[in-house]
Design brief:
The complex is a heterodimer of chains A (252) and B (578). By secondary structure, chain A is of the alpha+beta class. Chain A is 35% helix and 15% strand. Chain A has two domains: 99 residues, Roll (Ubiquitin-like (UB roll)), CATH 3.10.20.30; 139 residues, Fumarate Reductase Iron-sulfur Protein, Chain B, domain 2 (Orthogonal Bundle), CATH 1.10.1060.10. Chain A is built from ten helices and seven strands. In chain A, the strands form two sheets. Chain A has a five-stranded mixed sheet with strand order 2-1-5-3-4. In chain A, strands 6-7 form a two-stranded antiparallel ribbon. In chain A, a hairpin with a 2-residue loop joins strand 3 and strand 4. In chain A, helix 3 packs antiparallel against helix 6. The model of chain A has no long low-confidence stretch (mean pLDDT 96). Helix content of chain B is 37%, strand content 17%. By secondary structure, chain B is α+β, with helices and mostly antiparallel strands. Classes of the chains: A alpha+beta (252), B alpha+beta (578). The interface between A and B is large, with 60 and 66 residues.
Chain lengths: 252, 578
Amino acid sequence: MAEARLKVYRGDSGGGQYVEYKVPVEAGMVILDAIHYIQGAYAPDLAVRWNCKAAKCGSCSGEVNGKPSLMCKTRLDDFDLSEPIEVRPIKTFPVVKDLVTDVSWNYEINKRIVPFTPTNTNTDEWKIYQDDVDRVQEFRKCIECFLCQNVCHVLRNHDKKDLDDPKHLFAGPRFMVRIASLEMHPMDGANRVPFTKNEAGIGYCNITKCCTEVCPEDIHITDNAIIPMKERVVDEFYDPVLMIWRKMTGKK
Amino acid sequence: MAMIDTRYETHEHDVIVVGAGGAGIRAAIEAAEQGLRVALVCKSLLGKAHTVMAEGGIAAAMGNVDPADNWQVHFMDTMKGGKFLNNWRMAQIHAQEAPDRIRELELWGAVFDRTPDGKILQRPFGGHTYRRLCHVGDRTGLEIIRTLQDKAVHTPNIDVFMECTISHLIKNGDEVTAAFGYWRETGKFVLFKAKAVVLATGGIGKAFKVTSNSWEYTGDGHVLAYDVGADLIDMEFVQFHPTGMVWPPGVAGLLVTEAVRGEGGILTNSKGERFMEKYDPARMELSTRDIVAKSIYTEVKEGRGSPHGGVFLDVSHRGADYVKRRLPSMYHQFKELADVDITTGPMEVGPTTHYVMGGVKVDPETAQSTVPGLFAAGEVAGGMHGANRLGGNSLSDLLVFGRRAGMGAATYAKGVASIPAVDEAAVQRAIAEMVEPFERKGENPYTIHQELQMMMQANVGIVRIDADLRKAIEQLKRIQERAKTTSISGSVTYNPGWHLAKDLKTMATISEAVARCALQRTESRGGHTRLDYAEYDPYWSTVNSIVRKNADGSMEVTTAPLPVMPEELKKLFEEEKR
């Protein structure tokens, strides 16, 4: 039987190192299967987060040979098994232990977004056509794996995660998608555009599209969510005609 | 040996909800909206619970696509699907209230697929007379949990405790007054004191080898309730979903949504025969899950299976665009994990352990268990689905009875003047039990877990006989003893081995309940198939199985008469016959 070698990050907030394990390879095996094998055979305390093992829950995000991936859909036979495969936790969030990171920051951001605010609370009167919700449904495919947050250089390299200072905070691609899903819902009446500019820091995004590339749900994060939200910010805050009108009248 | 901090932190709430899938979150929202302080405690991160894996849809007689649909028909379908072992009142409440729960979800931001005239679209499913399942492609569960999650996060008075596992319930006299557990991230212990406790912990699938369930499904709530003296009912009824993936081995058991058949998928054997013609010619692929699963089992057993021990399921005749739009997750799942393009050819599928119909015995109106102050909703509760659950009835069950459990717990808590005292000796016993695996030399819990799974799959699986069940009960005794002697290495920080050492005990206990109930019921009905008692037995259509913990700690399995259905509901079935 073929054998794979996995170099798995073992450590905690105090630091760590890679430990190599040998894993027998079965047909169709994914990285998460290999991690489970290691738990059972060598290291019962190896920490990994997972639930559905079917790319539906977004729990098992990691970096496999440096590539941000869901471990449950990354197959061993995609790799050259003569070389060890390196598995490490996602970099943008602090390590708790081994492959598990502290992603609670994302939950704090979500609390700040004004929830769905229907303009009519009698749903029997709603007429919503499929065309009206295709875009919103694309955004709602998000499984909150936070791979987009992980690769976003504003968060990964510049650490714009200061929850107490909006000048140093970018909510990240996941929450641009969330905001867009609410803003584009045909029955929503709230305005999250000032929030998007002032508190979610959309100006930090310079549309490098790294988030779109790693999205396991193929959501067009940059083109369909972030750019339209940037346009709404521009319309509301930087429209030259409106700016003159506001100056003249003193009205907002 | 790891140094373990045996101190614990304490939280006080009016209501504590254990589990944050659809039922748990819905219960928390309801109790909080009644003005109570609620702790929502979940084993994983919020939004990752098993509800997220539900695919095909949520059943509710909205009549958007088939205007003839109404609660009476949904009620009758549910009772027939459950082979009349359901608690009739739960089935009635469920059918009556499901449409309101869907409207409520829309109001909280859920975005369902639409009909051409702008309403919520509904699709056909096994055992449902009309097109009844509201859905979002094949990711309905994700839509529901995300909607509930966002609603809960923005509901005042709900404190969410993520990656926190409850290991013990603690009683004061007859009442449950606290839940004890630990934080996975730090390994620290925590005590939640409360006036009422709602269990919403899901199922037991991880006791079996081939399952669509995640690591969380270890029967926690079933055993928490059992240990404090609550009755469980109908534990022999485990649903083997007819269509799980069978190849490659790494993904064996992974769910293939019933929506594939709802959208016209056809089952064939190795001879190319559409075998459902033999087993249920009227309903074919859209027969109930118990029948389809047994049919597939029979085809494979009799040598007409596919190369990897399943059968073929083909939906490619609907055209690539249609399949990709209606079943996007299935398309990706097979493409990425099995190198199969379901828009051009068949998938290989076979039965997988999916759901447990049995669970905590509850009052239909309030969801209270037989222990005062302890409530249960969702998969951990029993009675609603009888001997077999219809697809789509679980998501609606979560919402209908999640809400009722939240209401029931709130009403109960309002009648309790102050947070009751907690028995400190019981807390110390719980701590000692949790710490033990670090302090002794013993077996690796993973080894025992794998043996348990193989044993349950072989002896208490889709078909059962007396000798196998007796063997299982004997072996479970040994596994239970071994589960008390596991040892753990490493630190208390996020230690999956430690967690499994705890889960192993609940799985071994709940497996015994399944095996003993299965041995007791000498007939075949719904999800319970006995080769040695292949037919329905009139006696067994009059009783539920009851599981109870004796004072000496042994398990007692008996029966209780079914609640009697009132005349006006009986009449519905008689009128249909005419």
